[in-house]
Amino acid sequence: MSSHPAEPHRAHDADSTATSARVARRLSPDGRLIGLDVARGIALLAMMVTHIFALSDETGMPTWAAVFAGRASALFAVLAGCSLVLSTRSRMAVSGRLRDAAPSVLIRAAAIVLIGLCLGSISGLLAVILVNYGIMFALALFFLRLRAGALFAIAGVWMVVSPVVSMWVRSTFLLEPSYLPMGFFDFATPGTMLTDLFLTGYYPVLQWLSYILLGMAVAKLDIGRHLLALFTTGLGFFVIGRGASWILLNVFGGDAALVEVSQMWGTDLTAALFTGSYGVTPATSWWWLAIAGPHSGTPFDLLSTGGTAVMTIAACQAAAVLLGRRSWVLAPLSAPGSMPLSVYSAHVVLLEITRSQIVGGPLEASATVGEQTLEFVIHAATFVLLPLLWKAFVSLRGPLEGGIAGIIRVASPGPKRPASDLPGTG
């Protein structure tokens, strides 16, 4: 009996197997820290939760979504610090000179600022973080040559000292936050713009630089070999942050003092403790620095959310290591996480569309639970499926990441980067 009819079938199976293997390799490139992409994917989806779902109910008490408040953006920021080190590793390895890495970092920072200004000019719903990121990337250049131990120490000190400096400056000069998205129109008032960026805005650079430094410290380590140590360090940061805050509030009288101060000034203490302070605490009492509420920018907020971020990174990389060659199963998270700038930017734009179409108004509180759920499903599905398809069939880099990388290649040619520094790391 002839075997020829079976040969086309076997050839088809071989082609299908080869295609599947090729897609799997694209979704999980050799040598790449997939765990960091997974953590970025988690951060992106968690931020979408905080952007779409109400963080408090009608009585002012926190909802389930408040669990992600402050933590999602902190994880995103720590991972940005990781990206800064990974994206410059090959350039620094050649000579160890900062000037070899500086042009690529500054080009990337400028591009991120420009994208952030564009998004801030069209967004009426979100405090876009990208302008702050660009500035922090440029400032982080001064720390790029430091080793992991020094960076961990500086990050820890920065988390404790910077909120004290901020409180002193804001209380001395009576600086009030404005909480407006940073856009091109802000150049008309440069003084106010700089004040918001560094001291009074939703992501004040003075305090948030500590997250970048912490991420840089993490990336300076051989992450795969120090997973347990990283997780333990993150847990220590978290316990110190939450524990010290609890002791100050409940043992040393901070809670009673803040109740009195908040009643005097009309401040929502419950919101400050559980749903968010919009970047900084009020400057009406030094006791505000004892809280660990989301986006409060206190030492205990920075320590606890920074610790949560490091634990998440360690756990995600551990999952990727355990899966090994099968880490492509994490692609629903790692694909969007490998192109965070593109996904975040597209989410900001899409949110303007879905909010008006689904809710019919700009106020988050006006949306029903069903409307919020529908909007989140649209965003989550869009920003899981599109990055999956893009990465599997178009490019390992996201559209914006690829564009910035192209500019860097032309403007600042450098040595060829290793696989661990492939697209999406910045």
Q: Ranges with pLDDT <50 over ≥5 residues?
A: 417-426
Q: Strand tally, please?
A: 0
Class by alpha and beta content: mainly alpha
The first-to-last residue Cα distance is 59 Å
Secondary structure tally, helices: 16
Average residue pLDDT: 89
Order of helices and strands: HHHHHHHHHHHHHHHH
Radius of gyration: 23 Å
Q: What percentage of the residues does DSSP assign to strands (E)?
A: under 5%
Largest sheet: none
Helix content: 55-70%
Overall shape: it is globular
Task: Give an overview in words.
The protein has 426 residues and is mainly α. The protein is built from 16 helices and no strands. The chain has helices spanning 6-27, 34-52, 71-95, 98-122, 130-140, 148-172, 190-200, 205-220, 227-250, 254-265, 269-274, 299-323, 331-337, 340-359, 369-393, 399-411. Helix 4 (98-122) runs parallel beside helix 14, helix 6 (148-172) packs antiparallel against helix 12 (299-323) and helix 13 (331-337) packs across helix 15 (369-393). The model is unreliable at 417-426 (pLDDT under 50).
